[in-house]
Design brief:
single chain; 46% strand; alpha+beta; 4-stranded antiparallel beta sheet; 1 helix
C-alpha cells in the first residue's frame, strides 16, 4: 500500500479511541463510478495502532469530488478547473 503522508497530528484517533499521532495520507485507489472503474488520488486518515484507513465526513466529501473530477478527466469532459 503506497501512501504519501500529508500531515501528522497527535490527537484522539476515532478508529482505535486512543490518543496518538494520526496521519492524513493520500493514495491511489480504484473505485467504480457510474459503472466505470476510475483511478484517483484519495485522502484518508491512517491509524498506525489498528493499521486501518478511515475517512471523516470532510474527507468523504473531498474524495467524492476527486472521483468525479477523475471520471470527467477520463471522459474528456471539461472540469471546473478547465473553465475560466
Amino acid at each position: 500500500m503506497d501512501m504519501i503522508v500529508l500531515n501528522t497530528e497527535k490527537r484522539l484517533c476515532t478508529c482505535c479511541m486512543e490518543e496518538h499521532e494520526v496521519k492524513t495520507v493520500q493514495m491511489k485507489v480504484q473505485m467504480t463510478f457510474k459503472n466505470r472503474k476510475v483511478d484517483y488520488e484519495a485522502i484518508y486518515t491512517y491509524c498506525d495502532v489498528a493499521d486501518e484507513l478511515y475517512m471523516d465526513e470532510r474527507q468523504m466529501e473531498e474524495n467524492h469530488i476527486r472521483i468525479k473530477f477523475a471520471y470527467d478527466r477520463e471522459d474528456s469532459c471539461l472540469t471546473s478547473t478547465d473553465i475560466c
